[in-house]
Each structure stands twice: as structure tokens, then as C-alpha cells.
TrEMBL record, chains A, B:
Highest taxon, organism lineage: Bacteria
Pfam families the UniProt entry points to: PhoU
Predominant place of localization: cytoplasm
Top-level taxonomy: Bacteria, Pseudomonadati, Thermodesulfobacteriota, Desulfobacteria, Desulfobacterales
Keyword terms of this UniProt record: Cytoplasm, Phosphate transport, Transport
Localisation: Cytoplasm
The protein's name: Phosphate-specific transport system accessory protein PhoU
Biological function: Plays a role in the regulation of phosphate uptake.
Assembly: Homodimer.
């Protein structure tokens, strides 16, 4: 049993170091957006395989533990949640890469006198990711639920971005429609990133509430 | 052991009936796109909870089987794959709903003399979903790999849609930029739908190749 607990701790460490790496990438992409930093964008694209490899490792480790220790109830639910959260973290990595690619693409356009400030939206998405991982570690329902609320705020900013960019196109601020569409799509990638953080939080809620239901049956 | 086999068969039936329902929705959304059928779009939005409920049921059933029968090796890998594929099917349902919502939104715009024909793209996405589910049932590596190739074709059409719609906006075919952006976003929802079919196929490849590696070790 002690051995099993050590294995669970190892899994927690693994998913959290993947989480930390993904958080780092989200933080970097914020800088990329702010500074139009093409060199950093290219580095992010180049290093995506690190996240992919860690995802494979986490899943393999979870499968090994399930096969070896045959956990039930809470422990099994936790390991399945980790497998799903793992998947969402990897897809957050993909969204970061998508944003990096759009910034590289935008940088090839001639200078367009229109910028969209993504900082508030990206800050919220980053906070959502951090809080969703915290809620996983601390099994904290409040944190998880706060993530779900923040997702509504990110959606609202996405809709605002849509309206503003649409209006800018209609007003002909630039003839470079490709540039404007890239701006629009960046906001959607940030939204999807936030969606994956929401999935993580929902998984934590489900894990905690599932426990409550189970306890309820036992009482 | 016979009991366990019956449980596995039950899971297969459950994931396939979810797959069949999602396929039906994808087929319906093709019609919605072709006929701008707002009534059917609203019905699809209204019925999404059916898919959500089936997803929860499949995951709960998988967890129950793992906890009760403590499968290892191939059977465990299969059940974990089902949990992940289940998740992708539910998200395909979400993409179908997103497309339905865009069609409802478009229908409120004044008539714009510009249409984009999604039929080829949607046909390919539908074929990908069908083939990915076939590859799961038959554990067929060839089918799964064909899905991955089709994904490249869908991506190519998405890029074509982007170029064509961008050019149409630049040429001022309509002042209704919102309408044009909705057209663009529909193509991206179809692409994401195809991405989830690709995830399913990749999961099947991983499952089959994982087996091969395991057999290799045993020999």
C-alpha cells in the first residue's frame, strides 16, 4: 500500500510538472503577443515535442499503475481524471503553438496600423489554467468553480474581439484582410485554451462530487 | 471471465451507439448547411443533451468495469481508449452544435449573394468519423491510417475556404462582414470535427501498435 501511495505521488508530480511546462508556454505566448516576438514564437513551435512526450509518459505511467495496483473508487477516478487532464494539457500546448504560428504569419504582413490588445483575455486564460491545476492538487471545489466563471468572461472578451475586428474590417482600416482574420483567429485560440482549462476544472468538480455521491451511498 | 467478456461487449455496444448518434448528427448538419435548415439546426441544438448523457454513461460504465474486473494489458488499454474516444465523440457533438448555431445566426442576416459550398469538406469529415469508428470495432490499422490522410485533405479545404472568403471580403462582395466571418468559422468547426475523428483514429493506432510492442516483448 505504501508502494501504491508512492506511485500516486509520482503521478501527481508528473502531471504537475507537465502543468508547469504548459503554464510556462502560456506565459511565453502572452509575451509573444505583446511584443510580436517572432524568435520566441519559433522557439515555442520548435519545443512542442517536449509537451507531447510528457503526455505520453503520464498516460503510460497511469496505465501501469492501474494494471499493477488495480485501484478502485477514489484512486481509480483520480487516475482516469489525470489521463483526461493530461490530454487537455497537451491540447493547450497545441493552442499555444497555433497562436505562435499566427504571430509568425502576421509578422510577414506589411505593417498594419491596427492592433488588438489580447492581454486581459490572455491573463484570464492563464489564471484559469493555474487555478484549474491548483484545484486538482488541493481537490478544491471553490477554485474549480471560479474557473468555470472566468470562462464566461473569456467568452465575453472573445465576442467583443469579434465585434471590434468585424467593425474594423467593415470600416476598411486595412486592405490586408488576412491580417485581420489572423487577429480574429488568435482570440479564438485563446478561447479554446481557456476551454481546456475549463475541462480540467470540470473534471476536478466531477471527481470531487463523484466522491460525495459515493460517500452518500455508503452512509 | 465470461462475465467480463459480456461487460466488454456491452461497452462496445454503448460506444458504438453513441458513435451512431454522433454520426447521425453530423449527417444532419450537412443537410442543415446545404438547405440552411434553421428548424433542423434548432432541433440539433435542443437534442445535444442526449449525447452528453451517453458520454457520462459510457465513462461510468468503463470505470465500473475497471474497478470490478481489474483488467490488464490489452483490455485495460481498450477501456482507456474508449474513455478517450468517448470524450472526442462528445466534442464532435459540440462542434455540430456550434455549426448549427452559426447557421441560425446566418439566417438572421439579410440575404447575401455569396455562398460557400461545404459539401465536399463535410462529406470527408463524415467519412473520417465513420472510418475511425470502423477502425475501432475491427481494430483495423489501415482504416485508421486512411483517416489520418483524409485529415490532410480537410485541412487543405479549410485553407482554401480561408483564401476564398478572405478574397471575397477584400473584393467587397458584401458589406455584411459578420455573415462572411460566420462562413469562415463554419469551415473551422468542420475542421475541428475532423480533428476529433483523427484523435479517435490515432487512439486506435496507438492501441494496436501498443499491442504489437507488447507482443514483441513477450516473444
Amino acid at each position: 500500500m505504501k508502494h501504491f501511495q508512492r506511485e500516486l505521488d509520482k503521478i501527481k508530480k508528473m502531471i504537475l510538472s507537465l502543468g508547469a511546462l504548459v503554464e510556462k508556454r502560456v506565459h511565453q505566448i502572452k509575451q509573444v503577443l505583446e511584443d510580436r516576438d517572432v524568435a520566441m514564437a519559433n522557439e515555442i513551435i520548435h519545443l512542442d515535442h517536449e509537451i507531447d512526450q510528457m503526455e505520453v509518459d503520464v498516460e503510460e505511467e497511469c496505465l501501469k499503475i492501474i494494471a499493477l495496483h488495480q485501484p478502485v473508487a477514489t484512486d481509480l477516478r483520480f487516475l482516469i481524471a489525470v489521463i483526461k487532464i493530461n490530454n487537455d494539457l497537451e491540447r493547450i500546448g497545441d493552442q499555444v503553438v497555433n497562436i505562435a504560428q499566427r504571430v509568425v504569419s502576421i509578422s510577414k504582413h506589411p505593417v498594419v496600423p491596427y492592433r488588438f490588445d489580447y492581454s486581459v483575455m490572455a491573463d484570464k486564460a492563464e489564471a484559469m489554467l493555474r487555478m484549474s491545476l491548483d484545484s486538482l492538487v488541493n481537490q478544491d471545489l471553490d477554485d474549480a468553480i471560479r474557473v468555470l466563471h472566468l470562462d464566461d468572461e473569456v467568452d465575453a472578451i472573445k465576442n467583443e474581439a469579434y465585434d471590434r475586428i468585424k467593425t474594423a474590417i467593415a470600416n476598411g482600416v486595412t486592405e490586408d484582410i488576412g491580417y485581420m482574420i489572423n487577429l480574429l483567429l488568435i482570440s479564438r485560440h485563446i478561447e479554446r485554451l481557456a476551454d481546456h482549462a475549463t475541462n480540467i476544472a470540470e473534471e476536478v468538480v466531477y471527481m470531487i462530487e463523484g466522491e460525495i455521491v459515493r460517500h452518500g451511498r455508503l452512509d
